[in-house]
Amino acid sequence: MSVYLLCLVLFCVGLYCILRKRNVIKIIVGVVIAEYAVNLFLALVAYRFEGRAPIFSPDQKILNMVDALPQALVLTAIVISLATTALLVGIAMRIYEKYGTFDITKIKELKG
Amino acid sequence: MVDLYLLLIFMIIGAVIAVEVEDLLSAVVCVGTVGLALSMIFLILKAPDLAITQIVVEILCLIILIRATLKKDLPFSTSGRWLLNTGITVGFIGIFLYVASQALKELPAFGHPLMKVSETYLTDAVKQTGATNIVASIILDYRAYDTLGEATVLFTAVIGILAVVRRIGRKKQGEIIKEEDE
């Protein structure tokens, strides 16, 4: 159970960074850390003691494999997280071009 | 299981340094170490597909973030209602940790997963799909629509990035268009 708690602490580090920091790049760093924590949590739920990787080989007939379904869904989530991170960085760079700063408290003129 | 705990603590320390360090480039490099440790944890948790994908995604993410931090930036100020903001944030995170740790008691114990859905996949996948890698047979056969949706999200994000960062059609008078490739 303490493995789950360490994973939650990692998520909370990312959450603190999102809520508290003012730099846009720091906020993106927090989002990335929280994504890592959630992916890790799902992979931890799928683990089984003494389990094998979910790949069949011809000479082995044992069926004590780890849970393959969360792994497949996390595989999807990892790729999507890369796309969203790239979109966030693109928006942050546009903000820097327009306002000359990454500080979110200085971005006050929100008109186009 | 000692290696799993060591890597988890390494990830938490790397994340704390990435959050608290002043220099943006150092923060991005610390996030890179966190991602590589995550890839090693995936290997320990017997998920080789996840480890490979995580390594590729991590390096791409690092390149994108370093590209963003190459710009000069003002040092971020910490003036204002520092105590109030930090207090509210820490209080919220404490409540969240308490509720989540209560909810964790309902999960099956670590190392003993519920295999209700995966039993059929593990026993029938080779007969039904012909793929010896169960993860590949799930994402490409049983849940192919999910992968299709993932590709849709990916290309939508690419369209969004192109619409945000491209310079053609945003020219003002007297402004020099700089050539910059993404």
TrEMBL record, chain A:
Any one GO cellular component localisation term in the record: plasma membrane
Location(s), subcellular: Cell membrane
Membrane-crossing residue ranges in chain numbering: 27-47, 68-93
Top-rank lineage group of the source organism: Bacteria
Membrane topology category: Multi-pass membrane protein
Alphabetically ordered keywords of this record: Cell membrane, Membrane, Transmembrane, Transmembrane helix
Keyword Transmembrane among UniProt keywords: yes
One matching Pfam family: Oxidored_q2
Family: Belongs to the CPA3 antiporters (TC 2.A.63) subunit C family.
Protein name stated in the entry: Cation:proton antiporter
Classification of source organism: Bacteria, Pseudomonadati, Candidatus Omnitrophota, Candidatus Danuiimicrobium
Automatic annotation (TrEMBL), chain B:
Keyword terms of this UniProt record: Cell membrane, Membrane, Transmembrane, Transmembrane helix, Transport
Transmembrane segments: 6-21, 28-45, 51-70, 82-100, 151-169
Domain MrpA C-terminal/MbhD: 9-68
Location of the protein in the cell: Cell membrane
Residues in MrpA C-terminal/MbhE domain copies: 116-168
InterPro entries with a match to the protein in the record: CPA3_Na-H_Antiporter_A, MrpA_C/MbhD, MrpA_C/MbhE, Nuo/plastoQ_OxRdtase_6_NuoJ
A Gene Ontology term for the protein's cellular component: plasma membrane
Main location per the UniProt record: membrane
PANTHER family: NA(+)/H(+) ANTIPORTER SUBUNIT, NA(+)_H(+) ANTIPORTER SUBUNIT A
The protein, known as: Uncharacterized protein
